[in-house]
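During the first year of the project, the team set up a workflow for recording each protein of interest as an amino acid sequence followed immediately by a discrete structure-token representation. This format lets reviewers and collaborators read both layers of information side by side without switching files. As required by the reporting guidelines, we include two representative entries from the current panel. The first entry is reproduced here exactly as it appears in our internal archive.
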Amino acid sequence: MLDPKSPIAWRFAQMNERVASAKSQDLYLYLQEAEEINGMHVTIKGRDMLQFASYSYLDLLGHPKIDAAAHEAIERYSSGTHGVRILAGTIPLHTELEQTICEFKGTEAAMVYSSGFVTNYSTIAALVGRNDVVISDKLNHASIVDGCLMSRAKFMRVAHNDMRALEKTLASIPAGKGKLVVADAVFSMDGDILNLPDMVGLCNKYEALLMIDEAHSVGVIGETGRGIEEYYDMKGVIDIKMGTLSKTIPSIGGYIAGNEELITYLKHASRAFIFSAALPPAQTAAAKAAFEVIMEEPERVKLLHRNVDHFISGLQARGFNTLNSETPIVPIIAGDDERAWLMAKIAQEHDIFVLPVVSPAVPSNLARLRCNVTAGHTIEEIDRAMDIFVDAAKEVGVL
């Protein structure tokens, strides 16, 4: 039985108190059930709302080719696999998906995991250990941070996108230590893009492996949506390419792409790959079909880029602080937590589904609405949402 005076009990009480306080003020907006999803419209509590919290950047959720592939996979293989990939769980679809990822990302080999979070967590833990050093951008995703901690390597964090700080850190590492640098390509709270050219130069100079998380860059940046190497025209410079199958790709899971030596090692050393059940057939087939659609329908990427430009420039013209975002992840800075909660509530009352991000996920003075614009939004819908954000901001004193 839990001791009510223990630190564990204190943590339980603190979180429960915060949640109860938000609910008592009708400001708890998380875990709402989406009863129906139709493109960029979502039905919540019987109300049709315009979706501005979706990761479906290319509007692929519900694409007929992707849905048909999932249905066909269930008919052929049923709903699950027989176990872990390395034993009885591998089916031809897994290999086909990995080959498709190789084609899309321009690598020799790839492997898929059944969770995006675990992809980072387990891969980093397998790559470095006690006698190594892992360096992480301070705004990296929690899965990267947890993977660094789990690895038991010396964990060093550097200021966000600060290449001088990165060089100083790399230069301080004693000779003979293994070095891994890890960063997001597109940062998931601020929406800005990593300075890949300088990071690559420093990793080459100091002989460090480079791992990039492309969860929010695949399908999003680059002329054809192939991600950060295409965006900077630097094909093949990243050693370890990580991505998710649950954002632009409307499925679940994650992948690592790289050379044959890397993937062979990870398939036999990454605990989450060895000990987790294989990705289910329907989700595997859906992911494969989604990559194919991105390659077959490049106009979706162009439409997304148009909408991103319109949304960010429109918000800035209306007086909002959107930080340095140049991607579909667009923060609208509200300041303190309460204003962010209230702005989101007002927006939802006017049928715009958007959510607040508050401390400790972001600094307390940078609480925000975290808006996601997609290829599925029309210009008229974007304009309508921006006008509602203005009204909400004026009501709570942000503008």
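The second entry, processed by the same pipeline in the following quarter, appears below.
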Amino acid sequence: MNVVEVQPLKSWKVNPMINIVKTWQAFTSAPHRVFFFCGGVQSLLTLVWWMTDLAGRFGGLYTPISWTIAPTDAHAFLMIYSFFPFFIFGFLMTTFPRWMNGEELARKAYLPAFLLLATGSVLFYIGLIFSLIILKMAYVLFMGGWGFGLYGLLRVYFRAKHPDKRHAAITGVVLGLGWLLLAGFVSNEVHFIAIAKVGGIWLILLPVFFAVSHRMVPFFSANAISNYVIVRPNWVLALIPSFALVHGIFELTGLQAWTWLVDLPMAVSAIYLTRVWRLRDSLKVPILGMLHIGFAWLGIALTLYTLQSLTLLFTGHLILAKAPLHALVIGYFTSVLIAMATRVTLGHSGRMMKADRLTWGIFLAFQTVAMLRIVSELPGLDLVVRSHLYLCAAAVWLLCFGVWVRKYAPIYWQDVMN
């Protein structure tokens, strides 16, 4: 009788522990699982914080909140160094071995990076509210996690014997620069923070996203579009990252009126690739069309930068304000991120490589975020209208990523083929 009564208690105690261990093993079984999960969480937390700040500063709903650092600096850090990098490291740690026929990264190579970056993310929000010291601790943890992640990638790079390492070399070098730029936030000096913000866009994110696009968009297209001819010119792979560096230098040295000298060639190159990679044909296959639409934003963004620079040269006014920046960051970077993360999540969990109606709908709805932010920067808008557009864009971002995370996050702690 006693045995019969105790047995369910034993089962109740042991089974949850077994389930927790199994879930943790599945969750940590591949780098993209842990990094994409945390990136998904950051996609929500970052915008919840930003909406909270905007509602006070522009919405007039309450007195603006006083943070330990300027909200624009915090927003830049969260987006450039705390949101995108989770997806970048998760993607590159998955693809580096495949790009170069190298060895897979072991848990001990990517878990420390993930844990340090995740802990740094939590501390950052705490530090924003309570203490600059805690904030600096978060920066140091980020540098540690970034360093561990970079070491793991470089280890694969140097051990691989593949003859073509161009894309891996570009992403590896700029992530090394990113680690150095992080020190700008640690210093808390205005000039170094400015370098970290501008450098994060032009020296890290643009080269990484373009190298990935250059490598993967033609490859995936060849498998889905009939009679597809792969066009992957080497000159573009050299031109855009190097011209992006020049743009960053011009912007930091107050020469924005002359960035058109590099923005225009980059814009023409991006539009050329959009055409030869066959954007229209890709729309028949939604999971591929997501990548092509995301890439098309690069040509749009660089065209806006060109117009902005030329207008400044001839009139002395920045008529488009931050519209080109948001076309680049939201339109190109984030759209491609959603497309790539969806593809990797499905493909590496044994699921069908197909974007269902919900995923396709999420992606198309997300395009309005970029459009709202571009419109909100146009001249002549009333401040109230402009502030409402800010909040609307943030709300649509949260809605789209909220649904995406709800749909795909559970996959990261499930066994393959579940």
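For the second entry, the following points were noted during internal review. Residues 1-12 have pLDDT under 50 and may be disordered. The longest helix spans residues 190-222. Both points are flagged for discussion at the upcoming steering committee meeting.
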